[in-house]
Design the sequence.
């Protein structure tokens, strides 16, 4: 699978999909530190700047386009201006790029706040744009804590497939969901809590969903722009309260004994990156690492999506 990545950040997608044998055709990123990191780790991959300037024949053709356009316009911690914010308009530019490149698959990620901006009209416009371009789609809210990392990070994922919504739905949803089977298929404490929202008229199928926590509650750090939460471990020996500062990108861990900043390596592990992935030299500032990681996707979630696409391709 050849893919193109926009708003690439530090390339959680490539870390996740390398093991699948997928190859990037190009990256696109404008921020200085992520660009340095991408050049360091992937010197042979073309690195574009502003993705809105990518033309149809600039790079090797792709079968999949992936991107997490800026979330600040939709975040509950921001001004929530939606498409009236220049950063929010990049969501529509993502669709225009898909028109120029004609990939079979699309993968798009953003904060859950995108679902409620302008009473859902902004997100509806995005989905409607995909349908007008010929893409069937499905969307789902996934939480990274259910993919093997100790961090609660809820994000909306939209998967699109040209000409048909069913492959996209098969990627994001288990077979029992697609068949309408309401028989519990998980053990106690692992059921899916869901609200279904049909989008048949616009070519897609969606579910505003979050996976319920398992019976064993391990310590979880709340990050991104999520509201701080408190989770008690099964051992009941410590209470953990974690939060990422929305402006500085710093992560903090609070226990009964005090508060300390989580190290960049620990944050890398929270996102599923290899140790010191963001340490491209001995002089790399911790602040740059925190910020880049805070803007990234969770690697295990992206790996799961890639594996599902592989299965249905």
Sequence:
């Amino acid at each position: 699978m050849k893919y193109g990545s926009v708003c690439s950040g530090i390339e959680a997608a490539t870390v996740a999909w390398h093991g699948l044998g997928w190859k990037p055709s190009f990256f696109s990123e404008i921020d200085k530190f992520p660009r340095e990191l991408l050049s360091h780790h992937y010197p042979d991959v073309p690195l574009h700047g502003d993705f809105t300037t990518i033309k149809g024949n600039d790079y090797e053709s792709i079968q999949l386009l992936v991107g997490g356009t800026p979330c600040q316009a939709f975040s509950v911690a921001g001004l929530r201006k939606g498409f009236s914010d220049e950063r929010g308009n990049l969501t529509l530019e993502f669709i225009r790029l898909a028109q120029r490149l004609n990939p079979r698959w699309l993968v798009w990620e953003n904060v859950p706040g995108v679902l409620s901006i302008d009473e859902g009209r902004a997100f509806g416009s995005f989905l409607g744009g995909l349908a007008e371009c010929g893409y069937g789609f499905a969307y789902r809210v996934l939480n990274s804590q259910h993919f093997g990392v100790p961090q609660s990070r809820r994000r909306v994922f939209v998967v699109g497939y040209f000409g048909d919504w069913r492959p996209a739905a098969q990627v994001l949803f288990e077979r029992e969901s697609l068949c309408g089977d309401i028989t519990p298929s998980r053990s106690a404490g692992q059921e899916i809590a869901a609200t279904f929202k049909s989008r048949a008229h616009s070519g897609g199928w969606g579910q505003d969903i979050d996976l319920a926590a398992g019976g064993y509650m391990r310590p979880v750090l709340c990050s991104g722009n999520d509201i701080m939460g408190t989770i008690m471990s099964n051992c009941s020996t410590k209470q953990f309260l974690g939060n990422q500062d929305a402006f500085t990108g710093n992560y903090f861990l609070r226990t009964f004994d005090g508060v300390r900043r989580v190290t960049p390596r620990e944050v890398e592990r929270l996102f599923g990156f290899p140790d010191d992935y963001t340490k491209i030299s001995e002089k790399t500032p911790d602040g740059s690492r925190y910020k880049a990681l805070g803007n990234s996707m969770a690697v295990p979630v992206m790996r799961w999506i890639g594996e599902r696409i592989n299965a249905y391709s």
Remarks:
- Residues 110 and 156 are 5 Å apart (CA to CA).
- Residues 74-83, 184-202, 207-248 have pLDDT under 50 and may be disordered.
